[in-house]
């Protein structure tokens, strides 16, 4: 059983252990008790023609009765993910409700222990969407304090840095912590009446007999590693919505299922998504080295010329500096280790002096979409829509996706309101998206990322022509190369890369970095990382690709350990997982399925 807690800082469902609490039913003006003895009387049961719902689970469809032990809460709109897109959608819905004098119930469910805990981004923030959503954000004390003061772009070799004309236009943008901004957006959503449930992971899509999505279900809590129920077992909750919006971020597990089920990528722009892995630290440096608003991007070393990627270094407030490396996941060499490449980057003679004497405050990693315009799926499914980075609206040459994610959530919210109150179709979201500034921006930027399929220097030349001469008006649209997992080549074609040992000053081992991510999972729970075929690691990945799992993961989740006979076997340390999703993207045989762990697990970012 669960109760709803609301405060000025957060709202959440927590297991109901002893006391009862009053909550307001989503479809009723009456205040009702959900105490243990009265729960069956007051919780809403599924209402369909035959008294049942259909679950779209890992094994297809299965139905359950309205007499199920899963409790149900009904809302007008259910949003999965309390990130920029999800919270912008929630806020916009409530704003339109106020304008139209309508009361719609809106719920946001978030797998992180609190709002912002799983949010990681560079981040140089473009406030365009926020200006539209909350025009007086400065007066309302949004955590946006550091305007960009300088914009620098370097080409690195192993020992030198060459300054290039900056293709970025960051005038009017701000260096921020996105996890802090998301917390502020959560507070604004609550003030408007949005109910936010952090610490609960959406694990299943609920569908009716007409194959329409009717909401989501959270996963069960208190299940042991062997599948048995522990003393603290709590059945998951069904959150039903007349409209369901998926805002899970890049490579969202439920979003990916629906994209495949309804063939949304084929109905959209048609090309596969391509990804990168971003690895980031926030440092506190000496005051005499700190330049608030200083922005630096680099290309080149330490990556080889066939691997797309680059670094960023942003001076935040309070002597903090965000430092990171982004590595495209279509790299070919299976010996490449993104984590170690990042450690090596920090030793560059143009970077190391800044960091020496400083302290790492936080570490994290996250995958990001790089497919851009060519990879946008059709975002509408029966019963809802996909928004934000779950769909993939990142502007690669800008290295920005927060403003487009927020705008997509706002557009979806307007379409959801029109559907619920005016009888229009949710498909209007697709039409509005294509007529918005998101579409124009991504279309103009569409050829930058695929230009680098030809290598670093041809990519620089082609992108310069796009930027300075054609200005996004090229008569052709370039295609992406192979999907990321297919780009990995056999180990026999490469030599192993010998990475230097960390010095403990600017470079660190994985356990040290993991500690700084605040990552935590209950060890006694089923692994959320599933091998579709448990023989693939030892029979294919290890002999053919030299066990790339042990290198593309930035958290040492995957290790090859000798068994009692000396043979190497894959060990999965699921408790280390940063929820970056790189494993589900880069595994050569697509053998790893990433699912949500118990709600509240994962990283605990505060300043990322």
UniProtKB/TrEMBL annotation:
Residue stretches making up the ETF-QO/FixX C-terminal domain: 504-606
Residue ranges constituting the ETF-QO/FixC ubiquinone-binding domain according to the UniProt record: 275-368
Main location: mitochondrion
Subcellular localization, as worded in the UniProt entry: Mitochondrion inner membrane
Keywords carried by this UniProt record: Electron transport, FAD, Flavoprotein, Iron, Iron-sulfur, Membrane, Metal-binding, Mitochondrion, Mitochondrion inner membrane, Oxidoreductase, Transit peptide, Transport, Ubiquinone
MF (Gene Ontology): 4 iron, 4 sulfur cluster binding; electron-transferring-flavoprotein dehydrogenase activity; metal ion binding
Biological role: Accepts electrons from ETF and reduces ubiquinone.
PANTHER family recorded: ELECTRON TRANSFER FLAVOPROTEIN-UBIQUINONE OXIDOREDUCTASE (PTHR10617), ELECTRON TRANSFER FLAVOPROTEIN-UBIQUINONE OXIDOREDUCTASE, MITOCHONDRIAL (PTHR10617:SF107)
UniProt protein name: Electron transfer flavoprotein-ubiquinone oxidoreductase
